[in-house]
Structure formats: C-alpha cells, structure tokens
Write a structure and sequence with these properties.
Helices cover 44% and strands 20% of the residues. By secondary structure, the chain is α/β, with parallel strands linked by helices. It has one domain: TIM Barrel, CATH 3.20.20.
Length: 276
C-alpha cells in the first residue's frame, strides 16, 4: 500500500481527475476536526474510497505539563467517526505552558525524559484504546543528551509498548547533520514495531546542513535508504509520500508513488531471493 498526504491544495483535483492513484490517505486530525460545510462534504467523499491514516501535530508528548484530555477526547471521536486505521504522532514537544510553539522541538536524550514520555504515551494509548505510532523527528542540535539517540528511541518504544512510524528521510537528514551512519541506525531499530513509513524530500542549505522540508522531490540516496530499510524489514508495510508545499502536478506526484512501489517490490523480491 502506498498513500498520499491529503491536502486542501489539491483535494478537488484528487477527487475529480483520478490522476493520482494511491491506496490510502493521511491527514493531520487538527486540520479536519470540527470542519463543516464544503470541506466536510469533500472529506466524507474521499473517505468513501480511501482508508484513513492520521498524523497528529499537537499531542506534544515531550512537554512538561499533563496531557490535554479534552483534546484527546476530540481525537478519539475523530478516529472513531472516520474509522482511521492508525493514529501517529511525533517524538517531540510542540507546546509549553499551554503555548503552542508551531514547531517540533527535540526532547533531551535522558533517562528522565524516557520515563516521562513513555508514561505519557501509555496514558494516550489507554485513553484512545489503541496503540499509537511515534515518529522519529528530524532535529538540528541535541539537547542535554545523556545517552545516544538510538538508545533513547529504543527505550521509549520498549517502555511505552507503542509502534514506530519510520520516516526514512528524517533518518537520512539526522545522519547527515550529526555525522552518523544511517544504515547502522536502521539496523539498531526494532523494525518489527514499524507500522508504516514516511518518505519525503529535503533541502540542502549548507555543505554540512540539510533541512527536512517536505517541499522537494525525494533524492536518490533517500530512495536507497528506503530500499535498504525494506530489505532489512523483510516485509511490506504501508508507505506514505509526504508533500506539504511546492506541490507539483498530480502526475508528477504519481511518478514518485510509482518509484516507491517499484523500489519496495524489488527490495522484497531480492530479500526473498536471498533467503531461498
């Protein structure tokens, strides 16, 4: 299965022209909860034909304050009404003292943060009555790190017993910026926890700095890391193409979707061929 982030920028064209053939769509619940009128009608139309995955922006599991259960109640209702298959969020914090920061900031790699975040994720899963998938975010400077990033992530996955949304581009961006081996990082993740994969583009702004933007085409090294990941996993999982701005014509998005499908099929074929 390969999907697309469903955006109002191309929603009408997506429904009417059938140029982009995907298996599912993904939305941020915050952008669609409580809408009415034309957009509610259009959203209902697309849900008739496509399974829904959701990728939240406001849970902020790294924030020091308690969870916002009134917000979670709205999320729970939205997931139920839309029959959403997955609710995913970011391993980050995006608000502090109830002020939204409008960015996904890194959490310190510490044992204390592991316990804090894991307890929050467990509370969310208990409240929603489902497991959630947590995404490893891109970051540009570590904050008060007392342990390695991979140790931090694996500890949270283990303690919270949540699933993993694996953004391959984020791994590539972090590996480039912080000078570690992306494939080795993939090797040390619990890939059995991966519920689905994100693929996106980025922008190189300096010789030693790239920024995760979701506004450019996927580059060959990221495709290569995607193939490596699928072969390492040895199984097929849903893959989402993220494109948040600089959105090209749908036929061009279809080319990236096709490329993802080809790479995934070839990677699995090679995996099974070597196994036999």
């Amino acid at each position: 299965m390969t999907g697309i982030g469903f955006r109002k920028d191309f929603a009408e064209e997506f429904l009417q022209e059938n140029q982009l053939k995907v298996d599912f769509i993904e939305v941020a619940p915050e952008n669609w909860m409580g809408i009415g009128g034309y957009w509610k009608k259009l959203f209902k139309e697309v849900l008739k034909d496509y399974p829904l995955y959701t990728h939240g922006l406001s849970l902020s599991v790294g924030s020091p304050e308690e969870l916002d259960f009134s917000f979670l109640e709205k999320i729970k209702q939205f997931l139920k009404e839309t029959n959403a298959r997955i609710y995913s969020e970011h391993l980050s914090f995006s608000k502090c003292e109830n002020a939204h920061l409008y960015d996904l900031l890194p959490i310190p790699f510490t044992e204390q943060a592991v316990k804090h975040v894991s307890e929050k994720i467990k509370s969310v899963q208990d409240f929603l009555e489902r497991k959630i998938a947590i995404e490893i975010v891109s970051y540009y400077t570590p904050v008060a790190a007392e342990m390695k990033e991979i140790e931090f992530i694996n500890a949270i996955l283990q303690e919270s017993d949540c699933e993993l949304l694996l953004d391959v581009n984020n791994i590539y961006v972090n590996a480039f910026n912080h000078q570690y081996d992306a494939k080795n990082f993939i090797d040390h993740l619990p890939l059995e926890r991966v519920s689905y994969i994100h693929m996106a583009g980025h922008e190189k702004v300096e010789e030693d700095l790239i920024i995760d933007t979701h506004g450019q085409d996927i580059i060959d090294p990221v495709y290569g890391l995607f193939e490596y990941t699928i072969r390492k996993m040895g199984r097929s999982v849903p893959v989402l193409l993220e494109r948040d701005f600089n959105i090209p014509e749908l036929k061009d998005l279809q080319k990236e979707v096709n490329q993802l499908n080809i790479i995934k099929a070839n990677a699995l074929q090679k995996k099974f061929a070597h196994a036999s």
